[in-house]
């Protein structure tokens, strides 16, 4: 009874390809089944053996039949041990030994190259990350303001889908008065558009291009309009310093960055698609610190004490500690003790301004 070994391989019959399990008998007969009925048997003596592929470690056993060329491919190194155990002529044995040595050398070389490949891949991704990280601010600043307005308008429109906006003039006029005061002292030529959204969450944010969202939850939890002004001054600073655009550019990836550099309008379409994520983007510590500084500068120029913003931070932080629920505002704008202390320590304005608003009436209107 002959001993048989089994190997996995790919069988090519012309252009057709089949995954097979084949055996090599001690008499040099290669056999495998195709489906349930057809069985292929070919003598090793009538075949040609060679290494193929890249890096050349796959054994190809090929032969010609009446219906064309056939080939059986096997990548298992053990196939050579089986072939060398057969009773075959010396020339054939020498050829198989040579192929085995060549395969062994290439496999060994591949094992040594794997760490190099991994290092090159890692270097590529690290390089891409740093390129994206450090070039995003520069490239974001290259985006035309018309693009920024379109991105912000789309994000502003998408955010309001399915949400109820407040139209009561007592509320909208109060928010408009706050925005107009900030607009006078923010140093930017932007015409802000504001929507007050009926939502319990304590939040406010500004999209690129000057599109502002204020939630009723923010108004209800603010002790006075000056606190809301502080939050909005912070949010608008993010827009003025293009923090949102920088985050968006980083998320877009290298392809869009290249498109922006060369003025490819398709890059705008991709940025607009990503704009739906703008309301949930988090800012890093440097950006938050910079937005705090911008808010302090705007508030001081507008005659509003920065301590109103600090007081609001402290109030919401205490509520968070009591309930364990992180306010929406702090989920995307993490508050640290250092930030709170810096705002509290800011200089007071020389001339104090107070909004002529009945804040309790505004809350009741909500």
Automatic annotation (TrEMBL):
This is M48 family metallopeptidase. Gene3D superfamilies: Metalloproteases ('zincins'), catalytic domain (3.30.2010.10). Keywords: Hydrolase, Membrane, Metal-binding, Metalloprotease, Protease, Transmembrane, Transmembrane helix, Zinc. The keyword Protease applies. It comes from Methylomonas subterranea. The keyword Signal does not apply. It holds the Pfam family Peptidase_M48. Residues 187-345 form the Peptidase M48 domain. Its cofactor is Zn(2+). The lineage of its organism: Bacteria, Pseudomonadati, Pseudomonadota, Gammaproteobacteria, Methylococcales. It comes from the Bacteria. The chain crosses the membrane at residues 114-132. Belongs to the peptidase M48 family.
């Amino acid at each position: 009874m002959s001993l048989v070994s089994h190997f996995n391989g790919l069988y090519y019959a012309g252009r057709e390809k089949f995954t097979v399990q084949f055996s090599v008998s001690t008499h040099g007969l290669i056999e495998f089944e195709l489906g349930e009925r057809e069985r292929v048997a070919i003598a090793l003596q009538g075949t040609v053996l060679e290494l193929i592929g890249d890096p050349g470690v796959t054994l190809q056993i090929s032969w010609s039949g009446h219906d064309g060329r056939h080939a059986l491919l096997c990548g298992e190194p053990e196939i050579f041990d089986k072939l060398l155990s057969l009773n075959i002529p010396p020339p054939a044995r020498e050829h198989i030994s040579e192929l085995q040595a060549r395969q062994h050398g290439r496999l060994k070389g591949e094992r040594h190259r794997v760490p190099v490949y991994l290092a090159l891949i890692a270097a590529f991704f690290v390089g891409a990350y740093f390129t994206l990280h450090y070039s995003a601010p520069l490239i974001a600043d290259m985006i035309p303001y018309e693009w920024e307005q379109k991105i912000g308008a789309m994000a502003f429109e998408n955010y309001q889908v399915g949400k109820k906006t407040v139209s009561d003039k007592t509320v909208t006029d109060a928010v408009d008065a706050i925005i107009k005061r900030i607009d006078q002292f923010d140093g930017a030529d932007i015409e802000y558009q504001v929507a007050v959204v009926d939502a319990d969450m304590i939040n406010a944010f500004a999209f690129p291009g000057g599109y502002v969202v204020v939630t009723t939850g923010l108004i209800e939890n603010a002790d006075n309009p000056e606190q809301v002004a502080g939050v909005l001054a912070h949010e608008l600073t993010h827009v003025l310093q293009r923090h949102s655009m920088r985050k968006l550019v980083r998320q877009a990836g290298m392809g869009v960055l290249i498109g922006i550099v060369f003025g490819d309008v398709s890059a705008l379409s991709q940025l607009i698609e990503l704009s739906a994520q703008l309301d949930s983007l988090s800012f890093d510590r440097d950006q938050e610190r910079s937005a705090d500084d911008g808010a302090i500068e705007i508030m001081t120029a507008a005659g509003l004490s920065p301590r109103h913003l600090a007081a609001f931070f402290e109030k919401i932080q205490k509520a968070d500690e009591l309930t364990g629920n992180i306010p929406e505002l702090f989920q995307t704008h993490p508050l640290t003790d250092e930030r709170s202390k810096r705002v509290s320590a800011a200089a007071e304005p020389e001339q104090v301004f107070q909004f002529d608003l009945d804040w309790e009436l505004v809350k009741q209107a909500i």
